[in-house]
Hints:
Layout: H1 2-31, H2 35-38, H3 52-59, H4 63-94, H5 100-111, H6 115-128, H7 135-159, H8 163-171, H9 176-187, H10 189-205, H11 208-213, H12 222-227, H13 237-257, H14 259-266
Helix pairs in contact: 1-13, 3-13, 4-7, 4-10, 5-7, 7-10, 8-9, 10-14
Amino acid sequence: xxxxxxxxxxxxxxxxxxxxxFPFIWVFLTSIKPVNEIFGSFAWFTNNPTIKSYIAAFTQxxxxxxxxxxxxxxxxxxxxxITVASFTSYAITRLPIKGKTIILGGVLxxxxxxxxxxxxxxxxxxxxxxxxxxFSGLVIPYISITLPLAIWxxxxxxxxxPYSLEESAKLDGATPFQTFRKIIFPLAAPGVFTTAIxxxxxxxxxxxxxxxxxxxxxxRTVPVGISMYQSQYTIPWGDITAATIIVTIPIVILVLIFxxxxxxxxxxxxxxE
Length: 273
């Protein structure tokens, strides 16, 4: 009976993994098909695999430039958001500040605003500042959508740290900043790292602001750049699928390398001692 349940469990697990990975598998199989086979048949596999679509993805469009733009914007956004969110979350959760619930409620409300509702005022602001078609022109709106998320997540991690550690530091004469730097931040490092990954991915995948603010092809990010692969009369699905695989690889590698820290951050404080 136990063996049958185990087999059934693995069958369900295999089906679940296949369903989750099916879009990525299909995109990869499409990317290695010859162009005439993409619409000529719906067969899973091809007898003539080719990397022409990958070559075209780099030669037909400046994909490397798109990757560089996304990397720069996402990295700056992550560093700034995590830095500000760390200090803000510490102040909200650990210091005697009135109206903490209202502040966190406002942060949560700000994170729930749809991008389409704020795109117009932000576009006007960026235009008046003369920051269109620049990294700064995207970092500013990206921070506006990632900072509330980072503050809300980090606040939950800082709340779980025992207050006795902070009280001991105060008795030893440590200032609030010293307590944050030497005690609170190191203990919350798994949560900070997890939040940084989530912020980076959110900035990497953002499309609406990147499409609206940076109209110059030299400043486009990956999501917008790939959407511009289509021409007036045709849509090169081979090039698009190849580019999709290429730009997904950095995120997959990032998650695989730091998966232990991500899991540690997500499960931090889940079990009380």
